[in-house]
Amino acid sequence: MKTLYLMRHAKSSWSFDELSDRERPLNDRGRDDAPRMGQALAKRHIVPALFVSSPAVRALSTAVLVARELEYPHDKIVVEPAIYEADLDELLGVIRGLPDAAASVLLTGHNPTVTDVANYLLPKGGLTSEMPTAAILCLHFRADSWAEAGPANAEFYFYDHPRNEN
Predict the structure, then answer these.
(1) Does the pLDDT value for residue 142 go beyond 60?
(2) Which domain of life is it from (predicted)?
């Protein structure tokens, strides 16, 4: 079995016109929400075997803040350039190319692609709206290899976001 924690990066700042899209940092809410989601994973006793992130500052910062809450070493986060600006097929390619030694992976990326992948992989209809910032969708795949991950063997486990008051 493989487990994917598909995460949209936390809320980013638009306050710095001089920065490129890739360089945009998290805003105050994002810096609060990312650790909150790490704490939510910790309450479920979840520590993914591998963290993979887009190289964009807002995505990598999200991954680092979540990792910190789970005592996952931030220097072990894999930065995958293909996640940034990936479309549905490209992000599925990243997922299917994950190392099989990692039974569970937290992947931090961007909308609209994160929501597109969630809707593609989710059994029975997908999400009713786009994934909000810092949301996490967890799927189990009945597979021994990430290369086999797809809608036919995906099972919904949970969906959480910072505004969920559970």
Answers:
(1) yes
(2) Bacteria
Both structure tokens of 22: 């890739």
Percent of the chain with pLDDT over 90: 87
For residue 129, the model assigns a pLDDT of 87
Can the peptide bond before residue 55 be classed as cis, meaning omega within 30 degrees of 0? no
Contact 143, 153 (CB under 8 A): yes
User: What are the tokens at 67?
Assistant: 């990792």
What does the DSSP 8-state code read for residue 148?
Answer: G
144 CB neighbour count, 10 Å cutoff: 11
- Joined together, the tokens standing for residue 135 give 């949301």
Cα(145)–Cα(99) distance, integer angstroms:
8
Tokens read off for 137: 């969708």
Whether the per-residue pLDDT at 15 is higher than 90: the answer is no
Q: How would you write 1-13 as a 3-class SS string?
A: CEEEEEEECCCEC
Q: What is the distance between the alpha carbons of residues 4 and 16, in angstroms, rounded to a whole number?
A: 33
Q: Structural domains in the chain?
A: 2-134 (3.40.50.1240)
Identify the residue whose tokens are 């598909």.
6
Let me know: does 44 contact 67? Beta carbons within 8 Å.
no
